[in-house]
Amino acid sequence: MLLVDFVVFLIFPLVFWELSRNVVRDYPAMILSTLPGILYSLYRFKDTGGLNYTGIFVILNLTAGLLVDFLSGSALQLLWNNVFYSAALLFIYSVSLAARKPLYLFFTLDLMVMRGYDRNTTKELLFEKKTYKIFQLIMLIYCANELIYIVCLSRWILKYGVEAYRLDIILDKSLNIMLSGASLAAFFFIYQAANEITPVKKIVIAKPRRNFVSLSSYWTSFYFEWAYFYFSNHKR
């Protein structure tokens, strides 16, 4: 699945953009290059656990990103709208941090509920001082991620115009990979801390296709792929 993510969200948009822009023009090429990712994201929506905090956030982002793309009207305006949308995300992340309800805390809560934890008990645990500082740190990284994207893409648009689109794709996915890694590392640290206090109950897990893959490895790969899927969709 991780390989599919790379193809759908990075390789395909770049290749399609380069090959089709001279045929269908820049703006339609941009729109069409994002459609496979949108369809794949909707197909994968069930992995977010349905209408929990993360699921709602993913769906809202997909919907908003789709509207931004189709209402832009031109290739250059679409790039600028990506900047504006990233600024809106920066504002949302900052507000959640200032309100002492960091969004990443609720994303983590959803993941832990998927592993069998009680939602209400775990929520109280995550607001404890020891773990809460980690959520604040991750939200600062979220904000830094959006700020870097805004500054870099703005400068590239002013310098290269529509040609900045290929840099937009590469920058967006590179930042998301790094953000996914930091978020996943924080999740496992918090998970270990929570497990010392509240043992996870047994849950039924689908058997891996290959018997030699351990349960621990299966869950690790599942959460890494899940985290990358979410963060690679924070704009589209």
Please give the structural blueprint:
Blueprint: H1 2-24, H2 26-43, H3 53-71, H4 75-98, H5 103-114, H6 119-126, H7 129-160, H8 164-197, H9 215-231
Helix pairs in contact: 1-2, 1-8, 2-3, 3-4, 4-7, 5-6, 7-8, 8-9
Q: Your description of this structure?
A:
This protein has about 240 residues and is an all-alpha fold. Helix content is about 80%, strand content about 0%. It has 9 helices and no strands. The protein has helices spanning about 1-25, 25-45, 55-70, 75-100, 105-115, 120-125, 130-160, 165-195, 215-230. α8 crosses α9. It is elongated.
Q: How large is the radius of gyration?
A: 19 Å
Give the overall shape.
Answer: elongated
Quote the beta fraction. under 5%
Unreliable residue stretches: 200-216
The H-and-E topology, N to C, reads as HHHHHHHHH
Which range best describes the helical content: under 10%, 10-25%, 25-40%, 40-55%, 55-70% or over 70%? over 70%
Q: Given the structure, what is the number of helices?
A: 9
Keywords:
mainly alpha, 236 residues
Quick structural summary:
The protein is an all-alpha fold. It is 79% helix and 0% strand.
